[in-house]
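=== Structure Prediction Worksheet ===
Name of assembly: unnamed complex
Input type: mixed (protein and possibly other molecules)
Chain count: four
Listed entries:
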Amino acid sequence: MNKIKAGIVGGTGYTGIELLRILTQHPRVNLVCITSRSEVGQPVSNTYPSLRGVVDLNFSDPGSEELKRCDVVFSATPNGVAMQHAREFLAAGVKLIDLAADFRIKNVEIWEQWYGMKHACPELIEQAVYGFPEMHRDKIRGASLVANPGCYPTAVQLGFLPLIESGVVDVTSLIADAKSGVSGAGRTAALGTSFSEIGESFKAYNVSGHRHLPEIRQGLEWANGAPVELVFTPHLLPLVRGIHATLYATLTTKELDLQNMFERRYADEPFVDVMPAGSHPDTASVKGTNTCRISVHRPQGGDKVVVLAVEDNLVKGASGQAVQNMNLMFDLEETAGLTQVALVP
Amino acid sequence: MNKIKAGIVGGTGYTGIELLRILTQHPRVNLVCITSRSEVGQPVSNTYPSLRGVVDLNFSDPGSEELKRCDVVFSATPNGVAMQHAREFLAAGVKLIDLAADFRIKNVEIWEQWYGMKHACPELIEQAVYGFPEMHRDKIRGASLVANPGCYPTAVQLGFLPLIESGVVDVTSLIADAKSGVSGAGRTAALGTSFSEIGESFKAYNVSGHRHLPEIRQGLEWANGAPVELVFTPHLLPLVRGIHATLYATLTTKELDLQNMFERRYADEPFVDVMPAGSHPDTASVKGTNTCRISVHRPQGGDKVVVLAVEDNLVKGASGQAVQNMNLMFDLEETAGLTQVALVP
Amino acid sequence: MNKIKAGIVGGTGYTGIELLRILTQHPRVNLVCITSRSEVGQPVSNTYPSLRGVVDLNFSDPGSEELKRCDVVFSATPNGVAMQHAREFLAAGVKLIDLAADFRIKNVEIWEQWYGMKHACPELIEQAVYGFPEMHRDKIRGASLVANPGCYPTAVQLGFLPLIESGVVDVTSLIADAKSGVSGAGRTAALGTSFSEIGESFKAYNVSGHRHLPEIRQGLEWANGAPVELVFTPHLLPLVRGIHATLYATLTTKELDLQNMFERRYADEPFVDVMPAGSHPDTASVKGTNTCRISVHRPQGGDKVVVLAVEDNLVKGASGQAVQNMNLMFDLEETAGLTQVALVP
Amino acid sequence: MNKIKAGIVGGTGYTGIELLRILTQHPRVNLVCITSRSEVGQPVSNTYPSLRGVVDLNFSDPGSEELKRCDVVFSATPNGVAMQHAREFLAAGVKLIDLAADFRIKNVEIWEQWYGMKHACPELIEQAVYGFPEMHRDKIRGASLVANPGCYPTAVQLGFLPLIESGVVDVTSLIADAKSGVSGAGRTAALGTSFSEIGESFKAYNVSGHRHLPEIRQGLEWANGAPVELVFTPHLLPLVRGIHATLYATLTTKELDLQNMFERRYADEPFVDVMPAGSHPDTASVKGTNTCRISVHRPQGGDKVVVLAVEDNLVKGASGQAVQNMNLMFDLEETAGLTQVALVP
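=== Predicted Assembly ===
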């Protein structure tokens, strides 16, 4: 079988190295090009000694023509970069998966407001498919341009989806109290993510409004077919990998088997694991894997449902989901290259 | 000025050593006795090398008569121990501050149900004062028996109090998403708090019901003068000290200056710091101090209020608050011995 | 191709779960039995939610006959257990790989002195092969009973080996200052490895003598063909996985290309990576992999050589090396099942 | 009693905030001025919320005349800044304590070589006193300009001193394997100290040569009265505060009571604690304190001595020792303001 030729734009960040980790072990992928503006010509393994003996490539220039000869390109760049080059790749027949936010929001005004820049190719937004397989698997299969979901939005949507699709919660009561490991902030030198500042600390941030809020709301409104109201509170955890979303909603009906509802919703999903009733998933149980692990509670039998959802923000919340999308786009086994077992302890 | 003679029952746990840290630096306290069943006769500094040169005492037997000659005894034992000895201490004229839960809940049936044991001296429950200075300062001043609040209940109540006292929230909408450092679980050998299990992980626990729920509800109902409904979700943080409570409620009125409401409520409180509008307190900023730091948000100007409250679970959430209570009981400066500056970074 | 039938005795510890993680992804292994005295009949995935959907087995009784029908059994039990059952397994034609210390030391008196027990089958010690492929690859190929090396001894021996084999250091000058992550202490409830005790701390332990000292000395003496003297100082790191050995020796000759010596020694070793001159390997770069990464320094061109060696204590320091030994014993590709890429960040 | 007027140059770094923490609790100090080039006019408590309600000052310009009216100025700036202003301060009769390296090395050529810059006032180097009270207490008492020792040099010298002064070790055999918490790298945005890079990792750095090497060597040579040879290997620990130095030397005499030697050497030192024989000090036991805790071992009764020394790098390794020096310079109680108890756990 021919292998898929894959390229990565922006290979020095954490989603870039995570793509390398996954793609080098993918049975059907041939990684041919990885770019970095700052490290052109340098061996990838100089930046990441963990890849010594695993990746032999040198970083290419982001303008490399090699990318145009790929079957698929992953854009692992900051927000606002992929939209500069999307037309070119599509014109060259290259499928594009953007791990940043450029094509996630359908309403371009909302996007421009939250991301503080002018969109470079608004005409492509409609064509882009939101790469959330648990909702849009069929559309992804036929897509040329996929907007890979954000890390928080993946966990929060997976946790709320069964409730909203079933119409059993007050959609104005939604609260997502979410906690993320530090790698979600990317590979940057910043005081706010330096070890001494946050190594033995915990706090909320962007409580007044985080860019993932409109993305989550959009997804939940698709599921609901009508507007929803959501409070989204992100927090920074003193650990490297992992997101834990604690979700709250008010039930509108009392006669419910929530456990069964969740199990049925995700029965055929290879990467969503509904735990037994009464469980508390921990982030470590998904470290390095593409699994989102969920449990559902109804404390004291009251009218509030509490959903706990964990994922590895760099895998199911980013690069793993991107590969899952690639698998769908190229008609491969959906789990190909994504069967790693969590690193526990 | 005469010094207050103080004793500690159960000195080997974390609230015990924290009492030692605070009391040895208290200008008006003479620590005369500290007990430990397992370490009788051993120097305290053998168990805690950090106290070498600071504490010269040896551990006494818990039955030591020396305790009866104290002015005040702190009981830093597991739940169910203080109630065995409370009558004796009070009869001997010794004031008793219980850092465990024995006297926190006024309704003995509820207490027995949540704590799974028969109460040994129900007749003392009424007499006990809930040692929460921000609500009960005057009663504490005259108390002989103080029930020191739990760690979660301190942060959660301080965060909700201004809202409930002002009557501006729907009291059936309360949600407390709380995160605690591991020291809250005490000084015990347990797989669930071992470094390898939780050092790079995060999870919720006891979502179906935690013992601090009835205590929080009782306190909020006192403030409300009527029942309230609360969902309380505790989580375990991979750090040693610190609690962060993220609190949610639905506002019943829109015209509100929440910032001003919180600032006024705590203007005279020495240990509650309302941060400027838009702030996000972090747990590190209160490490080692008796301060609870709070900020209040109203995301997107909607109908939900979000309160962030941080404390050091071993200080304001336990031993520091116990000393604050002692200061009130003995008519000392309320801040005596509690002026440490947070250890940052 | 027929798969190898493998069993694990003692599957609930960290080396046990790590064997599960590796063997379930091994292309030539069929895991048929895993035992646990305390969890008989329980699904493995109840103890380890990370294995939900990966391992379908239930724990068997340690006396299970199924083990005798295996081609190979891994003993992942505490010291002193494997020696009770070794004869039985060998008699049944089952190859045995002991991850504990029972067969590591050839001198039974030294073993009994350091491990504080009588050896149960001293006659098997001679037959056992020390499973250190970089020294004993050929013997391992023909072995029925393999003593898998300890975690510290693996890193320390790999770091010293080129120097000792080349005869360029004073063998009475050896110092191994070694630092280990907490998972090396195993999956036990112990105050000394609880998060609150060690989460923000660092210390040495067993400086007067650690059980791995005689094992390291034995290995280095084999390489040297004569006695060596070694100071070995273990320390406990506040991280889960990783050993860093910092090794010191006095050079007896000045005209040396140490970098070249190390590169040549390990040129054909699939799991030893000699880094470029001037490098500093970090433990994260080998997390989850079977690689030992080494660099060699000669500060200020003096007469001391400093070797830095890192490994994942649960992989190359335990379960990964055990699988490497199995691969040799069954004439498989030595790297089969051991090609995971490190989880970075 | 009049209070000492103190100023701090460079108040936003970690040694600056640590000076604030200590000096605001010092009974004899009045902190009148703190400067920061980047934060002029801003309240100190904006940068450090932990100081809300504790420090009321705003940051001044580094050129502030207020500094000249101080009795003492602490320079908590990067290397190379204090030497620009030292003459001015001394001319104005202000005593100067430099927490950086400008005046630590007596040989200006060696200093310029290691620090890569031209010294701005070499004539002051001779006059500067190395602020290491355990060796130079009397000189410090009369000093106007004190060079506060580096963090590593403090622990390493305290550990080696008794051995070298007693002449019982081969001074060409010295090895210092030292491990430091991340706060030692200062308060800067750098990839190399970001949480995701080092939060679950450990490595050595600068093995070929670290700037603290010549400082340590100079101090040990003063004690020895002759040259010494030292290998110094620094490592980065995944914790915020704490240094652990593991020191090795070859004994030249066998009949020795090392425990007694260390206890006698430090019997009158208020900030050096020699632990009982067989102990292993941990860094947590000195967190937030000015104590260096030491134990001494002789493994297997051999010819190597192993010394373990721990300190808080920001206190005894920096700001605490600076205040200890100030106390000596102003004839105060040496322990004034330095009686904090370690924050454990």
